[in-house]
Amino acid sequence: MSLVKNRKDEQLEQYRVKDEGEKLTTNQGLKVAEDEFSLKAGERGPTLLEDFHFREKMTHFDHERIPERIVHARGFAAHGEFEVYESMKEYTRAGFLQDPGVKTPVFVRFSTVAGSRGSAETVRDARGFATKFYTEEGNYDLVGNNIPVFFIQDAIKFPDLIHAVKPEPHNEIPQAASAHDTFWDFVANNQESAHMVMWTMSDRAIPRSFRMMEGFGVHTFRFVNEEGKARFVKFHWKPVLGTHSLVWDEAQKISGKDPDFHRRDLFDSIENGDYPEYELGVQMIDEEDEFTFDFDLLDPTKLWPEEDIPVKIVGKMTLNRNVDNVFAETEQVAFHPGHVVPGIDFTNDPLLQGRLFSYTDTQLIRLGGPNFHELPINRPVCPFFNNQRDGYGRHTINKGQVAYHKNSLAANTPAPARPEEGGYTHYQERVEGYKVRARSDSFRDHFSQAALFWNSMSEAEKQHLIDAFSFELGKVESESVQKQVVDMFSNVSLELAQGFAEAIGVEPPQAGGASLEKSSPALSQENTKKSPATRKVGVIADDGFNSEEVGEILTALQKEGIQPEIISSKLGKLKGTDGSELKVKHTFLTCDSVLFDAVYAVGGKGAGKRFYKDASAFLQEAFTHFKPIGATHEGERWLEAQEMTGEPGVITGHAPDEFAAAFTEAIAAHRHWNRAV
What we know:
Blueprint: H1 3-13, H2 52-62, E1 75-84, E2 104-112, E3 127-135, E4 138-145, H3 158-165, H4 181-189, H5 194-200, E5 215-216, E6 221-224, E7 230-239, H6 248-257, H7 261-271, E8 277-286, E9 312-322, H8 326-331, E10 344-345, H9 350-366, H10 448-456, H11 459-474, H12 479-489, H13 494-504, E11 536-541, H14 547-559, E12 563-568, E13 572-575, E14 581-584, E15 586-587, E16 598-603, H15 609-624, E17 629-631, H16 634-641, E18 650-651, H17 656-668
């Protein structure tokens, strides 16, 4: 355990309070004798202005909500730690990337982008993936998304993008959705968005969980080592469990069945000790190679193909503690891409440059003033000293008469630190040119990488893209906008454009398509890591289940890290053939197949017609969502009746140990797209 982590825990500990057994007080510590009635002029008289306890209680209540984030409002977070695998001294002087023996505390917030704080979590959207490293050199914030590119190339267009994707102002509809006219009108008339739209229409925009979601820094940054040598760098988070997604019908149903699905999954996983893990990877390009690629390194709508610029895995992050209070931590945490440490610097990416201004401005209005860094969740673990005083929410009590630089009354302290003392120095880059409102010609190619993404998809993923465009544009009322989008994406793929044009009733284009034939296998989720660990399996059972075989199978699944949960017609305990019992966690009324990764149909001699009807509906939905299905005993007969046996990912007819092994393999595969549904 590192010194840094101990200090952060100790720092937070002073703010943690347990009220159990304590007497009620005001916020000033005054013990309160009555908390049921306000102070009145007589029992039926008016409340008196002098009732300071009532005024304090109501004032606090009236101000318990701070303005929600304009974007990324719906979020959830967790604490953890990061450890570098080997020293990165050759590439950067950043202290937290030097010593494999040091565990740096982190706080990570995941979020949707478009919806309000009360919206559902499985909507089609990009996801925020923001990490705060509490390092000995100060806080470093890696503020990214689960998609490596963005819709726009210049930050001045960000308000336009968000205005377009947010609910339309004349009726405040739809919430947390891009399937409406203004968003697609923006896309058609701002064609730099083509690449990002391909990602948001893909499976990446409906992740299975935060634990199975990649993260990207999006922008091109710089690593700078102690000798002053710089390299361009992009940051990646690679989930240890692989990158997996929902299917669209499933995502929509989860939004109604459990709008808290993603946060519940993260919270429960940490509580169960199944700590989410992500490896940090970096892509690096030497400065002398800046112009050797067919894309501009500073263009935020472009990625660096991993086959051309490999990702170097440098460390691992583990999330191992849930927050104690969502408001105090998750809502009040303040991220900023400008929170850097020595050895990490910026580039002239015009979207990044705008973010460096915007984030501080946002925190000022959300958190009430310039002292948001003093909130416990934002406070660095290292001491901070400067001449900033006063302001809303000031916690620090500075002693002394001096609050300016330079000075002689305090021996010119606090004084700037030289680089060898850890002082931050900006990378010296030659900059010259006319003051212009313009964009480099090297940013003009909007379709090549969108085509690269399409070329890299599996056949199932391509069909999902066509279906997603068909759904989204099927919700658009303007025929003109529909036609513009079809014409736009005919520049990416004729197959794609023709596919969704036909679905929405637009004349399909007869010519077009990008000439690019290159693909990047790293972009397809078909090539991700596949693991059964932490997968939830709904086990449908009733009284009279075969105790010996079912017990053996459930034990084998649990040894692989799979989490079986018993589903039946009522809560309580089920009795097996030998008298052993299974505790029921869900009923058909309180759960749904969309909340599980796989289904195991066991049945039982007590199962009647109603049970069979409910179980059949459960199984049919899981089957149409391409999920693994296993069945033994009565369950096998249910599958036979629904003509599911023999289909890919449907496991029946084995001895218990063989069944468990085959079912585990099917669960690890996540989906079975070649199934006849």
